């Protein structure tokens, strides 16, 4: 029995380590190197050779060995193990795609089968998937900030006081579960709809739709958004795409920056919701929530949201109970 668990544990840890080599993972060495090159290019273009000094924090041992960074690593490994245990393997995306496929058929969408040229279908599929995926990430993130109970769990991500590419994994498992359901919902809806409307034409969806957009996003420096390197995209591009500097504003400790820049790739959702703030190469920010959770260890990060939730529930229950009679109260 113990042997089985040991094999499972070592296997999962090895898989976590292999993320550094896996091109489908954001922290793969390729994307870490490409982020560095994007920053090198833009800084040199803007500031000449002096611009390279701005990359200093990316290579600083003080940042990588900071207690906050060590907590990032701890949460990354432990969350992997927990989510691998909790999320049932049977709950696959394909099961949901099949269920939705038969649902769309039952309401007659199958009769609409459109015979559009395959390149158009693939292009339309990629665009629909990208827009729905990006908006659903934005909106889920918006909810994590606006719903007080959800914020309890999301504050774990904001408790990082220094940012490294591994801060992306600094989340509470409850948030991991919420984002898993989000991806399940968006992927299943788009894939099943396209399979019904365009039978036998979306078999390449994975290559063109998912991998294509994720690959470009990661290649263009997604890792810099969680780093101490402050890089904006310039006045024009900044209005359309979330730059590393914009996401760093999202992590700022300053009250003026609370609930700003929820987006992942496109900045248009934030502009529509009135939460957009452009980034600037020279912004000087402090990161964290400024609350006690910033100092918590890995286990503290896990327990603190649950403890706070239990305390709130207890207070709420007590406030609904009739007040106790004082001991010497006269009988009526
Ligand atoms: Zn947030
Ligand atoms: Zn973040």
UniProtKB/TrEMBL annotation:
Topology with respect to the bilayer: Multi-pass membrane protein
InterPro entries for this protein: Fatty_acid_hydroxylase (IPR006694), Sterol_desaturase/TMEM195 (IPR051689)
Pfam family, one: FA_hydroxylase
Entry keywords, A to Z: Lipid metabolism, Membrane, Oxidoreductase, Transmembrane, Transmembrane helix
Domain of life of the native organism: Bacteria
EC number annotated for this UniProt entry: 1.-.-.-
Keyword flag Membrane: yes
Localisation: Endomembrane system
GO molecular function, one term: oxidoreductase activity
Membrane-spanning residues: 28-45, 81-102, 114-132, 179-198, 204-224
Domain Fatty acid hydroxylase: 128-275
Name of protein: Sterol desaturase family protein
Source organism per UniProt: Rhodanobacter aciditrophus
